Here is the input.
Amino acid sequence: MIESSPAADLPFAEFAKRLKKLQAYQKREKLDALFVLTEVNLYYFTGLTCDNGVLLAVRGKEPEFYTDFRYIVMAKRKAPGLKSELIWSARDEKQVLADKGKTWRRIGYEGKISASRFLSLKAAFPDAEWIDVSGGIMEMRSIKSPAEQRVMRRAIARNDDLFGMLLGQLEFGQTEWSMRAFVRRACDILGQGEAFDTIACVGANAAECHHEPDETVLTKGKPLLVDLGVRVDHYCSDMTRCVCFGRPTKLYTELHRIVHEANRAAIKAIKPGVPCCEIDAVARDYIAKAGYGKAFGHSLGHSVGLEIHEMPGFASTCKTPLKPGMLITVEPGIYLPNRAGVRLEDMILVTRTGCEILSQTPHDLFL
Here is the structure.
């Protein structure tokens, strides 16, 4: 049995490399200053987890991290190569920043910060041009380093273990909610909690893509769809499988076959240089030709990393070319309201020559 343990961090050298990439990006974009404020991006660049921090990169200087009394000792311990200082009080922020950046004219910020936070920053530099750097940061995060790939392989392997644990304790009479509760407990043993709220769908409930588990009971002959993920050392995993207890109906068998074949066709097409939208089209066209085009209404997949939904994604609107190191889901589905739903999701690593399927749980789970 795997014992529960706190999340482990990558060596600070990994974060130091990311800071160098951030500085290079800042130089290319001709930004006098760049603020990183969101918790996920603060962690990505510093390895520090806190709810009150500012990473400030000023062109020509080394980045500095500011945080309050609660986190300053931790910051100095965990990020020895990063200058960490106590943050200013909220009432003084406008003046402190104005004094620091008297010559700043182009300033980078994250578009995901709250409007109130943005207006507060903007008030300190009313004449500066503000540039949303979210896209640039997400592009950096889209390529997983070898160290990140190792962590994510562990997370994905634990997710396979998690699904096996769920199958091993399933009994007729269990509710969707009890399944979700079991997964939540198991995620605290296998990792550091769920990567997202588990989706468990019995029977026709699977026609709701993001069905919220309820008191629907698992009975013999009813198919089950489960979408689950565990977080390991800060990184997420994601997988969806469908299980049928007993002989599946002719319709369900057909839907499962089509979705499986669409999944494999899309994966076969994945290789560096191919635009994401073309991979989406492979699966979408396959399902459409089978007569179920209108029943596949979501995108084919999304990148996964520190967050469960990252960029780029396999969507009809995403023209981003695939690059080695991207880690993206492939999850075609067919959803027939009040009848049935099937989705099969795998996590895929783009390699130099094609791709590697990292999810190892089989698709044909007819028990």
In short: The mean pLDDT is 96. The domain at 143-366 is CATH 3.90.230.10 (Creatine Amidinohydrolase). The radius of gyration is 23 Å. The first helix runs from residue 12 to 28.
